[in-house]
Amino acid sequence: MRKLNVAVIGLGWVAEAHIASFSAAEGAQVTTVCSARNPSPAEVEARYGMPLKVYADYKDVLADPNVDVISLCTKNPEHPAQALAAIEAGKHLYIEKPIALNYEDAKRMRQAIQASKLKVCVGFELRYSKHYQLILSILNKGLLGDLHYGEADYYHGIADWYGQFRWSKKKDGGGSALLSAGCHAMDALLKLMGEPVEEVTSYSTKSRAACFAEYEFDPCSVTILKFANGKIGKVAACIDCLQPYYFHFHLVGSKGSLLDDKIYTTELPGLLKEKWTKLETVPIDSGEVMDHPYLPQCQEFINSIIHNTEMPLTGFEEGFESHRVIYAADLSAELGRPVKMSELN
Questions:
Q1: pTM for this structure?
Q2: Hey, what domains does the chain have and what are their CATH numbers?
Q3: What is the rounded distance in angstroms from the CA atom of residue 264 to the CA atom of residue 252?
Q4: Quick count: other Cβ atoms within 10 Å of Cβ 242?
Q5: Which of 30, 212, 297, 337 could pair with 240 in a Cys bridge, judged by C-beta atoms 3.0 to 4.6 Å apart?
Q6: Whole-number Cα distances in Å, 195 to 34, 79, 227, 331
Q7: Torsions phi, psi of 87, nearest 5?
Q8: Listed residue (160, 166, 80) closest to 120, CA to CA
Q9: What's the pLDDT score for residue 345?
Q10: Under-70 pLDDT residues of the chain
């Protein structure tokens, strides 16, 4: 069976991880890139270490019959139109987060994807991290019992020391603290809690540090989530912090609790309730894309195309629902009141 040919669209920061991961995935190869900067093939080969076909016009990529998969690494506002065009062209699709900056665009994307037979993956790759996989295993084995409270927080200061800041600081670029980056924490918690969200209440604010002054939206927010069956949760998204990168988990259940990479559970007799037990794993502790688990995610995506199976963990439907909760949270912060998920139909 021939390898699936992948075209990476956009040659910014995250494209490096996409090119490396799809190239390493069994059953796939990156053959094509597209950038409005129109770099020469020699420049691209020198940068990525492989000969690649280079396009400057996205329409030409979609018209190329040799391209099977589109990997969107472009700026956030471009995702909806480019995704819709890829689906119309019959290409399987990887969409970096956020899928869209507003709910209406996301709904249009969902409608087109549901009407197709194409496979779509959303860039919530942290679900494939060893840390997150370990937490899922702990929950699946019942070590925490029934969860009734959960936290997932994202702290990552983003200012002019990141190249993307020139456009992600804008309202029509980054969108919000959640859409810009904190969506990873929201998406992680929603999966762990295992119940649909009924209502959200969100508040936002902004640092007074000069390096974050150019943000056109509040780059810090906290969202309280009311789940079905009475569960509650909290997600902080802070991209205007001056500190090391920190991805925080705290899960509280009927048989124990998990705090980041530590656990206490009544299901393992002999553990001391007065002390946490350390879980040795690879933590989520870096905002650098090359440190993120794109390879296992890309491998599963390629597998889903080859075997015509559902994309596990980060298929479009799960990604869409995580974004829907984010849109509700941002609406709550804007309106200054709780928002029921039934308001977003």
A1: 0.97
A2: 4-125+294-313 (3.40.50.720), 127-288+322-343 (3.30.360.10)
A3: 10
A4: 10
A5: 212
A6: 40, 28, 6, 21
A7: -65, -45
A8: 80
A9: 83
A10: none
